Amino acid sequence: MVRIKHRYLLVNILYPDAKHSQLAPAKKSGDNVPYTVQFRRPSPDQMNGGLLMRLIRDGVVELFGDHGSGKIAGSLQVKYFSSATSTAIIRVSREHYRLVWSALTFTTRLPRPVDQPCVIQVVRVSGTIRKAEEEAIRRARLSIRRAEAAAKSASVSIAGTASTTPTAVAAGEDDFDMINGIEDPDEPGDMDDDDDG
Amino acid sequence: MAPLRPPPPLNNSKKRKEAPTNSQPNAPKRHKPTDHGQKTRDARTLSTQTTSKAFKNGELDVSAFVKSRAFEITALEEGMARSKKALNRRAFQQVPKELRRRTASHNVKRVPKRLRERGKREMADDNTPTVTARRRKPTAHMRLRLETVKKLRALGAKRNAGKDRVKPPVADPNGAAPKNPADSAPDQQQPVKTLAAIKARTPKVKQSLLATPPLPKAKFRKRQIHKSWLPTHLFHAKRARMTAPSASLWRFSIPLTPTAKSYRPTHRASHARGAVAWDMSYISTLQVEGREASLIGMLKALGVDEEELVGRQGGKWRQGRRVLEKFVFEREAPHDPIAPVTMMWCRDPAEQSAGTVEMEKRKRKLLLRVHPSAFYQLWEELLRLAKVAKPAVSVEDLRFEIGSLEITGPGGTEALLSALWPSHPIPGPLAKGDTAPTAMDIDSGSSNKNTVVEETWSALAGLTNPAVLPKNALLSFNVQDPRLHHPPRTIKLPRTETEQHKLLELIASWPVDTVQQHPELFDRKARQAASAKMPSQKAVNRRKGLAAPGEYPEPLPNDPQIPVLLYTTAPTNPDRGAPGRQSPKAGSWTLLVPWKCLQPIWYSLMYYPLSTGQQPRFGGLDQYRQSSFEAGKAWFPGDYPGTKAGWEWEYAERRKREAEWRKRPKGKRVNYKKVEVGEGGRGEVGVGWGCDWERLVGGPPVSHEGVEAAADAEKSGKSGDKSAKGVKTKAQEESQEPPQQAPPKLPHLTQLPARQALALLATPPTTTIKLPPHIHLPSALITIRLTLLTRGVPQPCARIYRLPSSTANPELRRQWLALLSSNTRNHTQKHGGKHAHPRNLPKTGHGLPQHVVQQRLAQSLLEPARAGEETYPACPGEEDLVGFVTTGSYDLAAGFGTGIGSLLVERVMGREEAGERHLCVVRNSGTGVARLGRWEVI
């Protein structure tokens, strides 16, 4: 039997620039919120699957015109969107997932009711939703760990007020992530973390 | 995410009320269409949190961040587990296609082994109540049996205890004696020696006596009081629906149909791929022994055509190289038909050497096989003939001595080859056992010719249709115990072209015909020796255990040599006139073996892994009837109502159908009194649940005053009186009389053989027909095959009418003939069922040219009437009733409905007018729609 083949894109919405956020980040109360948490902050409540859908369609129309939009129209579906974690799983047909990907990549702002600068990162393309879900779980674990580590180091630095070496190292790591923009390049260390978790 | 639904259409926007329609869009539906996808969709939706959950007092916070991620992780994991479960099917839903669902689906043992563990687990999860054999409450019948067993055990224990008590005192007085070998040995040996010297007199075989079934094991004896079991009863009883204990068929317990679904699989296995086997041990075997001339005289007296018996045509048959199947008749004046009989001669070893005088004098054996329903009739007839035959002829009943099986399908030969290993080792790679002395001692004669049959048999690997062999070819040889080679392995089949060419050459030359080998199956001693020598399963297992791994045990000189006789049955008439029957008809093998040797052969056949995959299937009686129906052959006794056996069968069927009919509530059964039978007439012709031959021959109840009909009525006990009152009285009568008692056959009702029927039909109506004086033409039946020309499927009991004559009802006749003109299933245009003709307006594609559109329009206007329309012709009246369909259904081989039935020959003779060869109108019992059909004699 012929099976309709799909691709599932696991997508993270990132908010790199904290200044433009409508929500007041806990900046004033000292920098106790680590950057990794700010970076992958929750999306505003207006942001939902339908808006994401519109965003992609508009992006594809802009980039590829009616042709591209028609190609993806039949199969595009937002399978999962969690605004609390800014994670989404998007389904497209296997032939045209690149159109969607590029539209996502070129997005710099969330559309009208939200209207917030963002970066949308496609972190995984898989043939089954199951693998996308597994990857989402892995990444959630990773970010939990990272946030906890960052929070610990921050609290230590506040308490000590002196920059001891371990905190500096931790802050440096955090900074490195932040500077790099790519939050977790696929390294063997990550895989080990995943296995442990 | 989900697309927005359009708002429901406003109902009240219109001022004017719409006319009530059948499908009101907003009317509350009584049944909501079940959305089967909903469950899956629900299982697949993942739960999400709102953003506020990820904030702490509207601010970013690490712990809230962590919590929201943790929630996501659990949501995704749960979602994966849920969607997996939603797609999951239970073990009971995954059984193979052919297994029936829902039969004991609470029983884990009903699912295939690989699913059993899972099924068990699922049942434990669901807390489904299960019953094990140990804990089942015995049925009332079973409880009685268990009590008896208990009592018997107690008795046996008592007796054994008593024995033990008695023994010691007997042994004590001379307790030392048996231990002294010097004393006892000579004493004991002396009598043994003398005993060995005296040969026990072999019991004289009582001839002309009915055989008694073999004494079953004590365990099974009570179940076989009024019937006997086939040798493979235990196999079938586990896997097939058997005849009910109270209603055995022909005093046998016969498998009716496998428990697994099998209508289509049987058709496939017998035509396309695989094999179907039947245990046909219930077919009766008789042996007649005497001089050739007297035996042939006997057959002549039974009504077999002389040219078949003597002369060149029957030459090979008389030498015992072919099989002959003929219909036999009673010898006395009405010459009632008995049954088709298969006859085979015992080949004589010294045929050429003896002089002509000797040849005439020597005694020969003839084996007759007949269906058990006609056995007794034939037996009586043979005994009567044997008494008057000179020189004497002896008749012997071999019913429970020779068992048989039949196998058909492309893989049949292959399966048989793996089961039947010739006893004579074949020279060549298998020649190891050549030195075994007894193997050669059995058959005296030229040694090189000894193994021709065996070699030929082994060389038949690769044959897919036994009908390719010479027609009715016969093979006889000895085989080894198949249990030694169990489980069977797939045999080597010819792959190369040269090998296949060799096979073709072998079939063309057929060297078996040149061999003078005495078939040992005819020899009672050989049969008994083979049966007696069969080792126990334990012994076989021991030998198999001693054999090297992967090897079969070596043949031993003491092994039984099972005499077998194999013959092919090819379809009798070649393809002729039956449209849509392009594929060559498959032949079948029939195997005759001693009764007790059949079971191991059966098991070897059933577990043979076919080269095309799967194993041979087994069939029951229903499958046998199906296969002969698909081959276009009439099945004895069901399709021969002119014979005594067929009449009884028809009566039993009628009773069964009537019971079915009566069982249903009045509102849900066909009201036969109100069936429109054409031309404004109401009420089914005769009884609706049977082929009412009495009515057909005797005419409607009005003509009952006729002298002959009245006489018939008196004779037969109940006649054509089938009015409503008649039915009632009949029912009352039947409730009083014993149910199995069939009324005697209509006098003079007879079945004409095909040749005679064709001759009668060919004679022009003007010439007077020369008939044998005994044939009463008004009640002579012919067997026909029927194909419907337009649509429809004939069912059993369907009424067959001739076309109304051009003088009596020219209009109706013209209407029927109009159907024929364009709407027939001819070869160029295959029968297309529902959509054969454009019913509604033609498809007007944009690309179609104008003339095609017009053509189609014209065609649709000219199209003949369809059933249900006003112009559709009505069924002819009862004066045109000519016969009934005895077997009818959708024919998987032909691709449309066909039927087999019988006609009164007098009513169709000389009625043929130009261009309407053998046309008829068929109406199923209880329906008002008649269909146009064409029949042919078979």
From TrEMBL, chain A:
<dbReference type="GO" id="GO:0030681">
    <property type="term" value="C:multimeric ribonuclease P complex"/>
</dbReference>
<dbReference type="GO" id="GO:0033204">
    <property type="term" value="F:ribonuclease P RNA binding"/>
</dbReference>
<feature type="compositionally biased region" description="Acidic residues">
    <location>
        <begin position="172"/>
        <end position="197"/>
    </location>
</feature>
<feature type="region of interest" description="Disordered">
    <location>
        <begin position="162"/>
        <end position="197"/>
    </location>
</feature>
<dbReference type="GO" id="GO:0004526">
    <property type="term" value="F:ribonuclease P activity"/>
</dbReference>
<keyword id="KW-0539">Nucleus</keyword>
<dbReference type="GO" id="GO:0000460">
    <property type="term" value="P:maturation of 5.8S rRNA"/>
</dbReference>
<keyword id="KW-0378">Hydrolase</keyword>
<protein>
    <recommendedName>
        <fullName>Ribonuclease P/MRP protein subunit POP5</fullName>
        <ecNumber>3.1.26.5</ecNumber>
    </recommendedName>
</protein>
<keyword id="KW-0819">tRNA processing</keyword>
<dbReference type="Pfam" id="PF01900">
    <property type="entry name" value="RNase_P_Rpp14"/>
</dbReference>
<dbReference type="InterPro" id="IPR002759">
    <property type="entry name" value="Pop5/Rpp14/Rnp2-like"/>
</dbReference>
<dbReference type="InterPro" id="IPR038085">
    <property type="entry name" value="Rnp2-like_sf"/>
</dbReference>
<dbReference type="GO" id="GO:0001682">
    <property type="term" value="P:tRNA 5'-leader removal"/>
</dbReference>
<dbReference type="GO" id="GO:0005730">
    <property type="term" value="C:nucleolus"/>
</dbReference>
<dbReference type="GO" id="GO:0000172">
    <property type="term" value="C:ribonuclease MRP complex"/>
</dbReference>
<comment type="function">
    <text>Component of ribonuclease P, a protein complex that generates mature tRNA molecules by cleaving their 5'-ends. Also a component of RNase MRP, which cleaves pre-rRNA sequences.</text>
</comment>
<comment type="similarity">
    <text>Belongs to the eukaryotic/archaeal RNase P protein component 2 family.</text>
</comment>
UniProtKB/TrEMBL annotation, chain B:
<dbReference type="Pfam" id="PF06978">
    <property type="entry name" value="POP1_N"/>
</dbReference>
<feature type="region of interest" description="Disordered">
    <location>
        <begin position="825"/>
        <end position="847"/>
    </location>
</feature>
<feature type="domain" description="Pop1 N-terminal">
    <location>
        <begin position="65"/>
        <end position="290"/>
    </location>
</feature>
<feature type="region of interest" description="Disordered">
    <location>
        <begin position="527"/>
        <end position="559"/>
    </location>
</feature>
<feature type="domain" description="POPLD">
    <location>
        <begin position="588"/>
        <end position="693"/>
    </location>
</feature>
<dbReference type="Pfam" id="PF08170">
    <property type="entry name" value="POPLD"/>
</dbReference>
<keyword id="KW-0378">Hydrolase</keyword>
<feature type="compositionally biased region" description="Basic and acidic residues">
    <location>
        <begin position="34"/>
        <end position="44"/>
    </location>
</feature>
<keyword id="KW-0819">tRNA processing</keyword>
<dbReference type="InterPro" id="IPR039182">
    <property type="entry name" value="Pop1"/>
</dbReference>
<feature type="compositionally biased region" description="Basic and acidic residues">
    <location>
        <begin position="712"/>
        <end position="724"/>
    </location>
</feature>
<dbReference type="InterPro" id="IPR055079">
    <property type="entry name" value="POP1_C"/>
</dbReference>
<feature type="region of interest" description="Disordered">
    <location>
        <begin position="113"/>
        <end position="135"/>
    </location>
</feature>
<dbReference type="Pfam" id="PF22770">
    <property type="entry name" value="POP1_C"/>
</dbReference>
<dbReference type="GO" id="GO:0000172">
    <property type="term" value="C:ribonuclease MRP complex"/>
</dbReference>
<dbReference type="InterPro" id="IPR012590">
    <property type="entry name" value="POPLD_dom"/>
</dbReference>
<feature type="compositionally biased region" description="Pro residues">
    <location>
        <begin position="1"/>
        <end position="10"/>
    </location>
</feature>
<protein>
    <submittedName>
        <fullName>Ribonucleases P/MRP protein subunit pop1</fullName>
        <ecNumber>3.1.26.5</ecNumber>
    </submittedName>
</protein>
<feature type="region of interest" description="Disordered">
    <location>
        <begin position="1"/>
        <end position="52"/>
    </location>
</feature>
<feature type="region of interest" description="Disordered">
    <location>
        <begin position="155"/>
        <end position="190"/>
    </location>
</feature>
<dbReference type="GO" id="GO:0005655">
    <property type="term" value="C:nucleolar ribonuclease P complex"/>
</dbReference>
<dbReference type="InterPro" id="IPR009723">
    <property type="entry name" value="Pop1_N"/>
</dbReference>
